[in-house]
């Protein structure tokens, strides 16, 4: 078990769903950007680092049928499964590290809110992008949300690498074209604020 896995399993074993800073009752921007990326309810969508996020609930309610949630913490995914109940059987749940995972299929939409910014080592970011390229076909879209350049320097006691759309474009490479970017002031459960940016890219080749 990696240090990253141990850290996040411990977080979800010791804190409630709404006791973490990134908790959102309604993931409105993520849902809107996924709808804009692909409104086809048969689109294959993966939420990378999805953890216990309520995005999968919202996508199921929206009628999307081919959903995958990947996270390195089994504890986090268990929280989501229990919350969703019987509908959890409609989702493909993958326990894996997004820097070492080996995709076995491709996706129309890759979504990541607040996972990529924990990759402070350039080699980890390169490994993540390698897997993203394996998993997203030409024409597919990628949505990555991170702390913005004026956002926090740490989260959950760990350092983060803050980004804007330009730095994300440089990480992804020229075959990913920026479609849109949005900013968000996220309010934590204890009402502090965090500056996020969301960037959506289309793969051209």
From TrEMBL:
Domain Methyltransferase: 45-140
Coiled coil stretches, renumbered: none
InterPro entries for this protein: Methyltransf_25 (IPR041698), SAM-dependent_MTases_sf (IPR029063)
Keywords: Methyltransferase, Transferase
Gene Ontology molecular function: any one: methyltransferase activity
Record's keyword annotation contains Methyltransferase: yes
Protein name, per record: SAM-dependent methyltransferase
């Amino acid at each position: 078990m990696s240090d990253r896995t141990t850290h996040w399993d411990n977080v979800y074993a010791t804190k409630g769903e709404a006791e973490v800073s990134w908790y959102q009752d309604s993931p409105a921007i993520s849902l809107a950007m996924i709808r804009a990326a692909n409104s086809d309810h048969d689109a294959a969508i993966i939420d990378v680092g999805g953890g216990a996020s309520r995005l999968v609930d919202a996508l199921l309610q929206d009628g999307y049928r081919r959903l995958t949630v990947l996270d390195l913490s089994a504890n986090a995914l268990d929280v989501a499964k229990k919350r969703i109940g019987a509908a959890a059987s409609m989702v493909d749940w993958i326990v894996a590290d997004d820097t070492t995972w080996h995709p076995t299929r491709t996706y129309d939409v890759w979504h990541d809110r607040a996972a990529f910014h924990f990759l402070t080592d350039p080699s980890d970011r390169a490994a993540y992008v390698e897997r993203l390229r394996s998993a997203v076909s030409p024409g597919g879209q990628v949505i990555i949300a991170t702390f913005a350049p004026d956002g926090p320097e740490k989260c959950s006691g760990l350092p983060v690498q803050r980004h804007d759309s330009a730095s994300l474009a440089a990480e992804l490479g020229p075959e990913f074209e920026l479609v849109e970017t949005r900013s968000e002031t996220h309010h934590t459960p204890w009402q502090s604020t965090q500056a996020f940016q969301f960037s959506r890219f289309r793969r051209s080749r």
